[in-house]
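debug: dumping io for the single-chain case to check the tokenizer round-trip. Nothing else runs in this session.
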Amino acid sequence: MILNFFFDFILLLSVSILLRRNVSIYKILGGAFIGGISILFLFFEISSLMLFIYKFMISVLMVLISFNYKNLKFTCQNILFLYIASIILGGFLYFLNVEFSYQHYGLIFINTGLSINVIFLIIFCPIIIYIYVRQGLLLKNNYSNYYKVTIYYNDKKYFFNAYLDTGNNLSVPLTNKPVILINKKIKVKHFFYIPYKGVNSEGIIKCFKVDKILINDLIKKNVIVGLLTDKIKIDGVDCLLNKRILEG
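debug: decoded output
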């Protein structure tokens, strides 16, 4: 029961951090306690279906105690991430148990008599969840800056995978219009050059004005686009948005 309580506490804490729920640690402890006593169901003779239903109801109760109820979407998201964390932790522990408790010869597994002890689980479970939460936060923060961009120029449409570069402050002198950067080849008829200065470099960049651009569902007109000579070093990205382009 204590080990079950420990696992549930780690899982609920990971959901709180990943979804930024900002709740009291005591509420998470309360939710973990409910999860801990659910192990008592194993001592009753019930069908697998009923056991599954009881476990699901316990997980819903854990979430409600830990994070309260605001609306259905909020609650369902909490439950979903709780199960995702459980699957990741359970899968990793199963993998470790198979690796340490069995020798395998091709598809044949032989029990060696070893098993993962409780101390090992207590030490490594927080590490596993920490890695999961850290990577989840990085992905959440990183991919929230990705956009689909369509550039309209000379009666043609060009499609880009864009990234909102908070370090891109490039603007046109005098007019102070923000400049977005692309590395796709577009045949430009009328262009001009503007100076730029980076951390380790400076020079001039070829720019032109487009009819309009579509950033997801946001339309911007009379936008200045700069042509990069070097490839953008962000996976799958061929356009860097200026942070000011989304303002106003």
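debug: round-trip ok. Residues 2-143 form one domain.
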